[in-house]
Every structure is written in C-alpha cells, then in structure tokens.
Amino acid sequence: MAILMDGKALAAEKMAELKKRAQALHDAGRPAGLSVILVGDDPASQVYVRNKGKACEELGIYSQTLRLPENTTQEELESCIETLNRDDRVHGILVQLPLPGHLNEAAALARIRPEKDVDGFHVENAGLLFTGQEGVVACTPKGILYMLKKTGVPLSGREAVVIGRSNIVGKPVGMLLLNENCTVTFCHSRTADLSSHTRRADILVAAVGKPRFVTADMVKPGAAVIDVGINRVDGKVVGDVDFEQVEKVAGYISPVPGGVGRMTICMLMENTLEAAERKAK
Questions:
Q1: CA–CA distance, 28 with 12 (Å, rounded to integer)
Q2: Catalytic residues, which ones?
C-alpha cells in the first residue's frame, strides 16, 4: 500500500510556520494584505474564495474580497485591479478564475503588478520560472513540489510525467520538476498511447479534470502519484486518479480531498507573506 501524502497534516505544519512570519510583519507595523476579486456568483469560486479568507483570518493577514457583478466590463475589472495596485495595504492581488466568458482573463491578469501577483500567473513570473530565476511561483505547482519534498520522494534523475498542459498547473509543475533535475514528459489530449508514458513515471502528476482517469494499470509500481483533480461524482468529490486501485500499486499517493488542495491555499498564504516581506525590506 502506498504512503499517503497527507496534505491536511502538511498544511497544518506549514500554517504554524507562516503564522509566525505573519506575526513578525504585524509586530513591525507592516501587516500583510491580500485582496481577492470575485466576478459573478459561480458556486465553486465562492467556496474557494471563502476558504482563502478563512486562511487569512487564521494567520492574521488583512484580507478583503471585492465582489463584482456578472455583467462587469473589462474596463471596470481592470480599473479595480489598478486601484489595488496603488493600495499600499495590499501586497497580493488575486483574480478568482474562471471569469465570466465575456471577460479576457489574460488581459486582466496582465494588469496585476508582477510583485503583487500572488497566484504566479503573470507572464513575467511565468517567464522567470521558465528561465530558472526567482519569482512568484503558481500556488498549486509550488504546493506539489513542497509535498513531494516533505514526503521524501527522490526527485533528481527521476522520470516525471505530467498529464495536462495548463498554464495554471501542468506547465509550471513540469518546469519546477525540471529545475529539480527530473526528466519531464508532458502528456495531453493528443498524446498517443498515454499509458506507455505514464508507466515509465517515477513521479506522475494528474491534472486533467476527468474523474478517476488514471487507473492502476497506468502506474509504475512504487511511483509517487499526485492527484490535482477536483471532480464531483454523485455528490462526492473525487480526483483524477482511481485512488482505491492506484493506492495498491503506487509508492506514494495524494488523496482527494485532503491532498493538493490544502497545499494550494498554504502556498497562496506564503506568496502573500513573501510579497509583504519584500515590500518591508
């Protein structure tokens, strides 16, 4: 049976460390601040935003959620971002995705100052990651790497396969693993004979958004399997990995829920605190 990569336990440990950093900023009269922009009333987005607010409250980070109506224009959204760019109390700006279909996500994210881009989605921060330089790293990939390292999964020289090529998870987690000296393969919807790639993986990251997509016969015995998926099936949250079967083959596995999702919020908090610490210097 695989070793469980317990995001809940790892997150609790990390939050305790972050609380000390948040307190140090507060004691210095420079408390960290995070602003979230939520456009429309998507139920999943509202849950994510609420969880982020709870994490800020737990750490003592100043937070605000700006709720904009579904029919907000591009100009209004970008004006809101510009106001936050100029606000010295705000060290992190997060535009909750997805945005309503009539809005241009890339244009909106580009308006956030790179130093306040705590989601790590700005092209400048993505470029720094791509070139191996220091910048803000997207929260979910950063959380995945933290989880792998804290669980003691060997990285250097290992084969890593990422299923999914999104700018939010797939591409940046691949770059992080490459920077850790893994040999990285990206797989996607056009990949021929997917299983021939996944069965070579010492580290397998599933970020496809399809419930229980990764089955036991696709996994190399002893591999570390990271499940990024959040899917609802019959009212239950399940991942992209068939957990019950893959657990019998893998060496390490992250659960859903209680895995990567917990680490994502932790890394958002850390990115916000790092932004505030840089500003304080």
A1: 25
A2: 52, 96, 119
